[in-house]
Description:
The structure is a homodimer. By secondary structure, chain A is of the alpha+beta class. The first copy, chain A, is elongated, with a radius of gyration of 19 Å. The first copy, chain A, has helices spanning about 30-35, 115-125, 125-150, 155-175, 190-195, 200-215, 230-235; strands at about 40-45, 50, 60-65, 65-70, 80-85, 90, 100-105, 110-115, 180-185, 220, 225. A four-stranded antiparallel beta sheet of chain A has the order 1-8-3-6. Chain A folds into two domains: about 25-150, Jelly Rolls; about 155-235, Arc Repressor Mutant, subunit A (Orthogonal Bundle). The N and C termini of chain A lie close together (about 10 Å). The model of chain A is unreliable at about 1-35 and about 240-245 (pLDDT under 50). The interface between A and B is large, with 40 and 40 residues. Chain A binds a DNA duplex through helix 6.
Amino acid sequence: MTPIFKVDHTNCQDCPIRHRAVCAHCDADELEELEEIKYYRSFEAGQTIIWSGDQMNFVGSVVSGIASLTQTMEDGRTQMVGLLLPSDFVGRPGREIAPYDVQATTDLVMCCFRKKPFEELMGTTPHIAHRLLQMTLDELDAAREWMLVLGRKTAREKIASLLSIIARRDASISKKGNSGPIVFDLPLTREAMADYLGLTLETVSRQISALKKDQVISLQGKRHVTIPDMGRLMEEAGDDSDGGFLV
Amino acid sequence: MTPIFKVDHTNCQDCPIRHRAVCAHCDADELEELEEIKYYRSFEAGQTIIWSGDQMNFVGSVVSGIASLTQTMEDGRTQMVGLLLPSDFVGRPGREIAPYDVQATTDLVMCCFRKKPFEELMGTTPHIAHRLLQMTLDELDAAREWMLVLGRKTAREKIASLLSIIARRDASISKKGNSGPIVFDLPLTREAMADYLGLTLETVSRQISALKKDQVISLQGKRHVTIPDMGRLMEEAGDDSDGGFLV
DNA sequence: TGCGTGCTTTGACAGAGATCAAGTGGAAAC
DNA sequence: GTTTCCACTTGATCTCTGTCAAAGCACGCA
């Protein structure tokens, strides 16, 4: 993923964040305006950042940690509809009211921009609009991939799909080679996984136990996962090819 | 919805299509270039327009009829991931390979643009990129709404949700008033509805029968639906407010 | 050390929806 | 008029996942 403001971060010396989507320090031309409208916010795990229906006077992107978008029905059923990883964008230019709850799933730092000036900047800086379009299309693809998971996969396949996504994301950061076991920490509680997958937390727990028993994965503690054979996991997920999730 | 090329269609005299998303005839400045790269295609109900994995050398928008995006797993399970109504956009600038099957659900006319020139035009015409961003964000919202439907709603609520969407879309075209019964034809087979909702066609049929029995809807024939009380239907769908679906 | 609290696991059971299997009805074709 | 075909409906049964309940485990706190 290329940053909105600049592709190359190598000369990004005094940038405190170095995350990939928004890095105003990297672009001298836009720096001055942005300093006025940009700020950082930190959240603790579990904190709600925005409530559905709230006025949204900023947009922003995730610097570190994980945030989630969730929808809740009157009777309390909730469905996660987005998982925001570092560099992902929150908020929509032109929208006043937040349509989802946004929650910090882990401790989180966001880089926020006041909405009005950001919109103006977008009007005068075409490559921001282009970059935003690209990111939105990626998110749309990811959402559609999830619709297949939610609509047609079994509980076991759902879990395998989720693990596969997280593994691949971490792999792209921590590993170069394509073989060997993959190791990572689950950034989600069982309940959050259930909300993402349209399951109950009990079913999530049972299926994780089953995958462990069948040696598709192994667990150290509750959250630390080792995947001995990524191909095997992807078979379990029902993915036909290695193309796929774009989260 | 405003068109990509021009907001106001009142002076769109010789435009043969007059659909809302793309109407090249409306904009004199862009006309000449576009005449070279624009063409129409018709499809019969059931025809596949693009296979997943195909090279895509065009983008376009739906003029009339309904198209669907579907994903299929190796074993044949299929999930619809998008429903394209007139004015909706197909294809993605910058993408070579189609990620989904695109099928004509009803008889269909599309307005297509060769991809390369369209991309160039987009580069030089900022408002096209902006419009596309807006449409993509709308689609993303609709996809996320569907994730709630797929993940957390019961079969009955799913059917009610789908009917509610179709009713509201038709209502926005055919009705001005907000009360009174709503009448429309289902543009989908039971199987297509099932693929959209992550159900089997038998369950779809049973739930439609149940809604009929409970007088939430009434049917003339298999496809012609009357909704006596829209509020009642939305209750059945589990929608808490009238805000909602953006398909 | 002991105790609560939050997250997780596991068990027993029930129910919503899938699966398998006929059967209906209407429209086009012969 | 009859046949054929296709979309749809309905029934019987099975099974996966949800629900309710209890218990385990790790960690912080008194």
